[in-house]
Amino acid sequence: MTNINILSPHVADMIAAGEVVERPASVIKELVENSIDAGADSITIEIKNGGSSMIRITDNGSGMSPEDAGIAFMRHATSKLHDEYGLDSISTMGFRGEALAAISAVSRIDMVTREQGAEQGIRVILEAGDIQNMEECGCPYGTTITVRDLFYNTPARRKFLKTERSETTACTQTAVRCALSRPDISIHYIKDGSEEFFTPGDGDSLSGMYAIFGRDFANKMLSCNGSNDKVSVKGYVSSPAACRGNRAYQYFFCNNRYIRSPLLQAAVEQAYENSMLVGHYPACCLYIDIGYGAVDVNVHPTKTEVKFMEEKKVFDAVYHAALAAIQKENLLSTPAAPTDAAKISESDSVPAFRSSGTPARPETFRPRYEDSPARSYRSNTAPRDEAPVPFAFSGGSAAGQTSLDGFGDARPQPSGASDPEPQTKKSSSEVPPFRMIGEVMNTYILVQQDEKLIIIDKHACHERIIFDRLLTEDRSVMSQILMVPVTVKTDEETATLLEENGELLTDLGFELEPYGDNSHIIRAVPADMYESDVTAAFEEICQQLKDHRTVDLEARKTNILKTVACKAAIKAGWKTDVRELFVLAEAVVSQKIKYCPHGRPVAVVYTREDLDKEFKRIV
Ligand code: ADP
Ligand code: MG
User: Does 80 contact ligand 1 (Cβ within 6 A)?
Assistant: First the structure.
């Protein structure tokens, strides 16, 4: 015989606890959200032993009256939702009235709270959800909740806790997300008695990042803003040169809640295409503001997943904001650290979870919207459009004896065969004045601009210039007929790919003719390419076609153009005419280019301060 029992509220709480309270980190999240809802502008998070022996959250928010304090731990006790009409416009973090009931059901709680303006505070002691004691006490305004011995009465759940180290890491992650989610709230995080970070709560997320991840990290962030009719995006993205080997430093917040979003991740990463090393990921801290009706936050009880009603609008806004930030980056100036955060942070060298290992890389998700304005945007803003740039180094001779089209008479002339004299470039409206010092090792160009020493990688720089030009060429890429056609033999798979991509290759300046038995004769190649490089370039392109067979046409084209640009660029080690060096230096000094198509920086900059430090003139 079966009996249907109505679960006692107590058991129901313990079941709910499984959903709301997975691990110590979720307790932190729920309690901090309550403090935020209570209007606190200062919150302290303390944990011991990965949170399993103790979690304490202290806030200076509204506090609770003795009556509210008595019922706050009952299931469905909430002050935030009165009827079903409120459900559509939830602006507080919590609203289900579940968290305190769920947490208290599986722990020992000591809460002290004092309502703003009240004479006295009240202390409530609970064990496994039952109130043991309630008494008046003296305490500051606000609320302190101490949660001890999490899951002490549910041994099965306690067994599921991971090692203390990984629970600590999860707690720290949560504290970081809470802190970054609200730059206007000062958050203090103390782990096993030692201070991990203390954000100033000055409203600027850069100050928060500075306090949490340290100065070096914050200095490499670029401000990122944008909006369209549906969403606004603000925050920071990393300079392409400061990208990292994993996605651990990508933070997205939607209406001030931390969210996970493969969509936003893809939008940011797509903006870094062509300016970031392969296998690297940008860091970011981005705040998406969107009307409450345009996003569904109720997808999951722990609310880190959201559903955007108009994904494409959100994607585009983030993509364009990030792209604009990268393009605006002023390579030649060193961004200043936020000054007020500097006073507070002692945690420069103790970034919150730098020591905690590398999280597994999430699967890549790359929505590619057909006709996405992303692509046309890129071509519209490429450097070539700003001014006709005389970068027509013709690639006819393998010796690097290149000719320059489009040089005006005002350009400096080479001073004979000997090393060029240092020359100062006359200022023009576009190119700030700079002094060419010379070239070293036939590889690096040295330039002085104001109080900066700029060292330019001539190959990377030229490669970028050619790549940008090829990308923006509206017609097919110009090709050159080879004096001596080159025959290449491939495997069958490659031969098929070459045939499938025939049109693309023709478009890019190649002329191929099948020759039977998986062989091809190459009759023409892009005009820029050095003849001596044809075979190597071709092999690289075949490999790319294999590696990128699943990506769309546009991406395949970009990849091939990178190879063409690389093979067309002057090489490190080659002797280069000083006038060519000037053109390259100009492109860097005028900020037209910053990264080679593979994402390596084209130049490094030393300020006077950098050098003075190096020589210990200053500390
Ligand atoms: P919810 O946040 O969904 O309302 P909770 O169980 O998290 O449910 O909290 C229950 C109620 O307790 C809240 O609605 C609020 O009135 C009160 N409360 C909880 N934490 C605090 C706090 N730190 N300061 C003031 N009030 C609080
Ligand atoms: Mg809550």
Answer: yes
The residues with which 321 forms a beta bridge, in sequence order, are: none
Residue 303 to residues 260, 261, 307, 403: CA-CA distances in angstroms?
9, 12, 10, 61
Query: Atom 7 in ligand 1: which residue has the minimum CA distance?
Result: 99
Question: Residue 269's closest CA among 281, 285, 252?
Answer: 281
> 583: burial class by Cβ within 10 Å (0-12, 13-18, 19+)?
buried
- If you ran DSSP here, which 8-state letter would residue 51 be given? G
Q: What angle do CA 531, 393, 512 make, to 5 degrees?
A: 35
Instruction: Tell me the whole-structure pTM to 2 decimals.
Output: 0.65
Query: Residue 96 CA: which ligand is closest?
Result: 1
**204 CA to centre of ligand 1 in angstroms:** 27
Report residue 149 CA to chain centroid gap. 37
Ligand 1 atom at shortest distance from the alpha carbon of 93: 2
Residue nearest to atom 4 of ligand 1 (CA): 78
Pocket of ligand 1 contains residue 449 by CB under 6 Å: no
CB neighbours of residue 405 within 10 Å: 9
Q: What is the pLDDT of residues 339-381, one digit of tens each?
A: 333 333 333 322 333 333 333 333 333 333 333 333 222 222 3
* Closest listed residue to residue 335, CA positions, set 597, 605, 617: 605
Q: For residues 218 and 280, what is the distance between their CA atoms, to the nearest angstrom?
A: 18
Structure tokens at 31: 């309690």
pLDDT of residue 153: 93
Q: How far is the CA of 37 from the centre of ligand 1 (A)?
A: 8
**Structure tokens given for 615:** 């020589």
Does residue 387 contact residue 430 with C-beta atoms inside 8 Å?
A: yes
Place of tokens 């729920």: 30
Question: Does 38 sit in the ligand 1 pocket, CB within 6 Å?
Answer: yes
